[in-house]
Model the fold of this input.
Amino acid sequence: MKKLFNVLLITISTYGALMAQSNKQTGADSSKMAWWKDAKFGMFIHWGVYSVPAGVYNGKEVPGIGEWIMNTAKIPMADYQKFAQQFNPVKYDPEAWVRMAKNAGVKYIIITAKHHDGFAMFDSKVTDWDITSATPYGKDVLKPLIAACHEQGIRIGLYYSQAQDWNHPGGAASGGHWDKGQDGDMDAYLDKVAVPQVREILHNYGDIDILWWDTPQNMTPARAEKFISVIKQYPNLITNNRLGGGENGDTETPEQFVPPTGFPGRNWETCMTMNDTWGYKSNDQNWKSTTVLIRNLVDAVSKGGNFLLNVGPTSLGEIPQPSSK
Done:
């Protein structure tokens, strides 16, 4: 990441005229986007209960990305929820994580507050399927990370899976439900779990800069409005294009590739993994070379975009060494 930052500085200088031209083409952006457009480099953190199985279920490696293991392997809710009893990140050091990111030139961090497995990485009052109630660790991991970001001058964003939730009745599931416990009314789920949790994460930690939605499964304009009415209270909050229901948000989010022409007229960021997974998988050692990552960073920045590079910590709270060196 240090090498990436050095190249980032060169890139910003080399392509300054191009980026200025791109900004002119997009027209006047709201002032809330100014810092984001200058940032260029962010760190994505996919972390949750899925780091316990780490890509392996019943002794067999499950194909695909690590954070989707419950869906891919069709793990029953009761079996998956047992993994939380082994989630104990005693080596978690949020200040060190932020310091590492800052030293690498990262300007903003986005972490999974809740992924599609419905597990809250914070102290949620609307469910016991959270880190404070369901794990031996018993502490909110977002709070100290957000505090460290504020202390060290790093912007902070929270990823929230607004539609898919495989462990609460009524939550959506790509490909359909496989456990009767998942069945229920989606609007009731949104009203009782998802919307209240969005209120929690935006209200409880001080300034949050970005809210990063994902996979708008079964989202309609009416369902999207449930969230829009909440985020309207935070005029400086940046949101992406994945809420659904026809809402475009502030940013486009190409995944694992840099679009050939960028997104003329839109702010955008490419999010990308260092290996083949977002959430930690113990057997995935297919790390991209520094040369490849630098080339992708240069490509994104030269076209007026940001580069959001992912790390997937282990269940002990360690960032894998190939991601941090």
The mean pLDDT is 93. Residues 186-203 form the longest helix (18 residues). The CA atoms of residues 24 and 203 lie 35 Å apart.
